[in-house]
Amino acid sequence: MNGSLPQRGRIGAEQSQILVDAVHRLSGISIAPTKTSFLEHRINRLLQTSGVANVEEYVKHLRVNPTGLAALRLVEALTTHTTSFFRERAHYDWMMAVGLPAVVAEGAGLDRPLVIWSAACSTGAELWSAGMVVDGYGRNRNLRWDLVGTDVSQKILVKAAQAIFEEDDILPIPEEMRKRYLLRSRGAPDAKSRYRIAPELRSRARLGWVNLLDLPSGMALTADIAFLRNVLIYFDAEDQLRAAANVARRIQPGGYLLTGHSEGLASPPPGMTLVAPSIYRKE
Ligand SMILES: C[S@@+](CC[C@H](N)C(=O)[O-])C[C@H]1O[C@@H](n2cnc3c(N)ncnc32)[C@H](O)[C@@H]1O
């Protein structure tokens, strides 16, 4: 990559196609090449930060090395990481009332650790929310449990591992949980407060890079409850089923898969039954 000044610019139809094909190949994310203003906005930002002069040159890098640095940066540039604590709150209420008692009845947390997997974890807000719920449920039951967070974006995984959030981020967390699971950082007196997830949750979490469309067969993970939320919308119908099947394969019998409330799958993943809106149970 050269150091010449980046030029903002329009992206032609052929270049759009090459860029969306590359990101699809690497992550399954399906972007219509006609979404030119979205592509131009994200790609121009990418050119600025990567020091590549223009989109033609970026495409050349992709052609020379379709899985190299330019390709990885493209995935980073085109992924969307919107998330929040206790997003789609109904799933957490369901966990407390139904999901956790059901998986514990199957031996999770007792004979073996109970595992919660946030399969497209973004900053970790989903993972830590689930951790707060499990900790509350398990505290007087002496449960053993772990958290696993995975994502296709290396950058967001670094952020998830830091587990540091701004004042606005923590607003959806119930007050008593904030007191218990957040540590306020002592910055300059006039600086905005920042909050770090407490070690009792962080110490239970493993974070790792995965592409949900291409999960390594040797991946040592079997979850009792897997969150696969607000990521399927970025895949085409075939890849949605593939990603859901890949995750379902790594769920314990009697365990659950949660999808986003707006992400209806065309059919339940193999071996799973829809038991409530956006909640599947493994037979
Ligand atoms: C919109 S966020 C959703 C975060 C969280 N699950 C939630 O519901 O709030 C989507 C996340 O999916 C990740 N992602 C996209 N494609 C992926 C893939 N093929 N494998 C794993 N993660 C992927 C993105 O990097 C992003 O962090």
Automatic annotation (TrEMBL):
Record keywords, A-Z: Methyltransferase, S-adenosyl-L-methionine, Transferase
Gene Ontology molecular function, alphabetical: protein-glutamate O-methyltransferase activity
GO biological process: methylation
Pfam family, one: CheR_N
Domain CheR-type methyltransferase: 19-283
Reactions catalysed: L-glutamyl-[protein] + S-adenosyl-L-methionine = [protein]-L-glutamate 5-O-methyl ester + S-adenosyl-L-homocysteine
Cross-referenced PANTHER family: CHEMOTAXIS PROTEIN METHYLTRANSFERASE
SUPFAM superfamilies listed in its UniProt record: Chemotaxis receptor methyltransferase CheR, N-terminal domain (SSF47757), S-adenosyl-L-methionine-dependent methyltransferases (SSF53335)
PROSITE patterns: CHER
Enzyme Commission number, as recorded: 2.1.1.80
Name the record gives this protein: protein-glutamate O-methyltransferase
